């Protein structure tokens, strides 16, 4: 399975970005799609995830600011990030889990929030 992420970049505090990630090549249906992030010197953490049926989970630090969505037909997941803060600066990794439990990771896209 290949995951290709787009949308990272530099944004000012209070700004917005949209990340997208398309999965291809999976023999099995994808049950979970999501985003993790890793800031310098910190562990990778869950940002948000969404199941094929629609339920979502968010890290407390992004609730109310980030929205995750997916297009099941296109195996694509989106992360709308609003009111970005400097502490959101990190490499964001796309993640999927298939219905047979296999995990896959994208290459990461850098989001920098700075004035």
Description of the molecule:
This protein is mainly β. It contains no helices and eleven strands. Strands 2, 4, 5, 6, 9, 10 and 11 form a seven-stranded mixed β-sheet that branches. A four-stranded antiparallel β-sheet has the order 1-3-8-7, with no helix packed on it.
Summarize the structure.
By secondary structure, this protein is an all-beta fold. The protein is built from no helices and eleven strands. The chain has strands at 2-6, 9-11, 17-24, 30-38, 45-51, 56-58, 66-71, 76-81, 90-98, 103-105, 109-113.
Q: Could you give the topology of this structure?
A:
Elements: E1 2-6, E2 9-11, E3 17-24, E4 30-38, E5 45-51, E6 56-58, E7 66-71, E8 76-81, E9 90-98, E10 103-105, E11 109-113
Output the keywords.
single chain; 115 residues; mainly beta; 7-stranded mixed beta sheet; 4-stranded antiparallel beta sheet; 0% helix; 56% strand
Mean of all residue-level pLDDT scores: 94
Strand content: over 45%
Instruction: Give the CA-CA distance, first to last residue.
Output: 37 Å
Label the structural class: mainly beta
């Amino acid at each position: 399975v290949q995951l290709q992420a787009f949308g990272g970049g530099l944004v000012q505090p209070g700004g917005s970005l949209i990340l997208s990630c398309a999965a291809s090549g999976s023999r099995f249906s994808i049950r979970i799609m999501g985003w993790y992030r890793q800031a310098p010197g910190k562990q990778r953490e869950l940002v948000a995830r969404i199941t094929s049926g629609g339920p979502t989970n968010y890290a407390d630090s992004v609730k109310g600011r980030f929205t995750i969505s997916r297009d099941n037909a296109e195996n694509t997941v989106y992360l709308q990030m609003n009111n970005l803060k400097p502490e959101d600066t990190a490499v964001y990794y796309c993640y999927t889990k298939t219905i047979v439990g296999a995990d896959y990771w994208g290459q990461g896209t850098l989001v920098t929030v700075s004035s």
